[in-house]
Amino acid sequence: MKKLLVTLLCLSIASPAFVYADNHKSEQNREHGSHKSEQKVQHVHIEMEDEDEDDEEHESSLHEEKENGHEGHHGNNGNPQATTTPADIAAPVISLLGSSAIATSSATISWTTNELATGDVYYSTSTPVVVATANNAGSTVLATAHSFNLAALLPGTTYYFMVKSVDVAGNATTSAAQSFSTGALPTPLVISNIANSNVASTTATVSWVTNRLATSNLSYGTTTASTVLNGTSTPALTHSFNLVGLIANTTYNLFLQSMDAIGNIAVATASLFTTN
After folding, report:
1. CATH of the domain spanning 94-181, picked from 3.10.20.310, 3.20.20.60, 3.40.50.300, 2.60.40.10
2. Are 252 and 224 in contact (CB under 8 A)?
3. What pLDDT digit, counting tens, does each position of 113-142 carry?
């Protein structure tokens, strides 16, 4: 388009020289031809300027479209569009699961999780552990360290247990079953070999033995065992008490008691007859 207009411009400028080449024409005619040439030049010039403006507007429009497209991708503030955070579908990882502090009637179960989660222990004396019917100890508090004491267990019994943790998103993990055995109760404390010796009118000796180390005391009286004699605080197998201030020809009722180191108690009764 620009080439065509430039050609027209050149032809328009050159045309007065051919039309008015006769040197005998009047100055008025030459001025009139020159005026017509200037009008054509101006007309062509105006058309070229209009065409240039159209080209500039077209380029500006393309630039704006590019800008708008770039802005639409990055948002008004020039930052990339925000992406949504993926949903948490990862269940907690249970580790360091085990039992400790096992006694005759209690034990502790503990474990850790790699994220905040609740904790529950399910335990029973049979396997597999059935959650719906098993005993349960747990907490809804979110934590990464979990520890629960199981109480009122049966002595000398094997327990099976598994644990479960649930994170804040509701993802749950259940461990494989493990087991532990409570300690058996020791053989009951037994008092035996009760004997009265050195019996006199006002004195006597009462003794007995126990099947393991224990402390002892003795209570005695003519109707009820109202007088109490406390033995040594040192545990022993043989226990002996000297009674003084007795009444001659009188029968005394005796109440014997022994206790071992873990609190097991054995009791027995006997009688004593003094001489005259």
Report:
1. 2.60.40.10
2. no
3. 999 999 999 999 999 999 999 999 999 999
